[in-house]
Amino acid sequence: MKAVVVNEGGGLSYEDFPDPVAGRGEVVVELKAAAINRRDLLLRNPPGPAYEFPKPIVPGSDGAGIRRDTGEEVVIYPGLHWGPREDAAGPEWGILGGPSNGTYAQLVTVPEENVYRKPPRLSWEGAAAFPLAALTAYRALFAVGRLRADETVLVLGAGSGVSTFAVQLAAQEGARVLVTSSSEAKIERAKELGAAGGVLYTDEGWPEAVGPVDLVLDSVGSTWRDSARALRPGGRLVVFGGTGGPEVTLDVRAIYLSWKSILSTTMGSPNDFFAMLRMVNDGDWHPVIDSVRPLAEAAAAHDRMKAGEHFGKLVLTT
User: Fold this and answer.
1) Domain 2-130+287-317 has CATH 3.40.50.1220
2) CATH superfamily, region 137-264
3) Mean pLDDT of 225-253
4) Preceding omega of 212 cis (within 30 degrees of 0)
5) What confidence category does residue 102 fall into, taking pLDDT thresholds of 50, 70 and 90?
6) Above 90 in pLDDT, residue 309?
């Protein structure tokens, strides 16, 4: 088969790669499309041991295609060995595409329980775009953030894949959604997805301008202090990323004297995926796709993500 491979040093190559063979309890999926996540960039330039895997390796956590043994059209749940608890994954938990070979390929092998029926209303590109990002957004909003229809949620960063799904899922639930961005154009695009409005995070005092809100979704990390300022007393801050850096300084008294909570999450359980998939099937929105490229042009898609030029998901077709 053909696959995109991360080599030593972080370079990408499009090359022949051995066909995967299904073991006991596994299936082979003939991929029609895959999607890019920031995690794929971290595999190339690991910021720490969590992303240091033996190379060469095929990246990619998102994919949709045809199950070879049954001919079913399926979408792939990207989590591996979540474990029995819902509040946190077990010690063997991992994500497809590191250390196991992932979806930047014509074929991939996954556990049988990781394949779900593809939503009929979505194209191959749309189906490949949502698994990891929409699952992350769903868990942050509902399973961890406990968002209700009568509440307001602030989503930091209007253009990322997770953010676009968070806006649409929260709006589908009936919540009021606000966003932040450095671009008025991206705020306007978020409004087209269901957001009520937004603020420029480059403006001084933006947390007070947008708040108080019930829930903040923060994937930046270095913005925790500002995110907490935007919360009402008793509000919840859900964090699931550190694109702005791994460290932050907080005023502890400002948190506990206002009954605010800081909660964290990563990806989601199979039960979260099933619940999210039900929302996808019940909704009438579509994943926001920034661009679609052939698999051989994965490096160009990575460059676009690194530059922050995208709005929505970057998709690869096989």
Assistant:
1) no
2) NAD(P)-binding Rossmann-like Domain (3.40.50.720)
3) 93
4) yes
5) very high
6) no
